[in-house]
Design brief:
179 residues; alpha+beta; 9-stranded antiparallel sheet; 4 helices; 32% strand; globular
């Protein structure tokens, strides 16, 4: 029988995308208010790999990632997804934009071995956590690079995303050494 041990804290990330700079700024402020200071921020990537979001979010989407200073228990993913969904609805109600979903906030976390994203949608490769939230192991780190899963979203296959996730992983490892 294996010994039950607590999980090491993980690096919380949030993927944010929108066609509006003010939506991304609003989302950043809301996330910092709840999750604390941002340690790393990616550039704003053009989101063009899929048309899935066009109907609800419009065209010309840009995505950015935020990694937060405070390391957290991975079990906090459920509360983070519930919160970010509520913030999306709050922004949509306040912003008076023509799109139904002018801001998308997707929380997840990075460990030394993987990138996990939260979802409200059940699929064969997702594990149910609680309160209507599922977790997806989107990428894994092996041999010095991020590796894809058959279900990895098209944009998460991008090398420029992987460079940012490697920066996040390096930051996490530095934090572990400091503990």
């Amino acid at each position: 029988m294996g010994e039950i041990l607590p999980h090491r804290p993980v690096l919380r990330i949030v993927a944010a995308f929108s066609r509006y700079d003010e939506a991304l700024a609003w989302g950043r402020a809301r996330c910092e208010q709840a999750f604390g200071p941002i340690a790393l921020e990616s550039e704003r990537f053009e989101h063009h790999e899929t048309q899935y979001y066009t109907a609800s979010m419009g065209e010309g989407l840009r995505k950015t990632f935020w990694a937060f200073e405070s390391l957290v228990d991975p079990a906090e993913l459920v509360a983070a997804k519930i919160a970010t969904n509520a913030w999306e609805a709050e922004f949509a109600a306040e912003a008076n934009k023509p799109e139904a979903r002018p801001l998308n906030l997707d929380p997840g976390y990075i460990t030394e071995a993987k990138l996990v994203l939260a979802s409200t949608k059940d699929r064969d490769h997702r594990l149910y956590l609680e309160r209507g939230i599922f977790a997806e192991n989107t990428l894994f780190f092996r041999g010095g690079t991020w590796q894809l899963r058959p279900w990895t979203y098209p944009d998460y296959q991008r090398a420029d995303y992987h460079l940012f996730f490697t920066r996040c992983r390096d930051y996490l490892r530095q934090r572990y050494r400091a503990l």
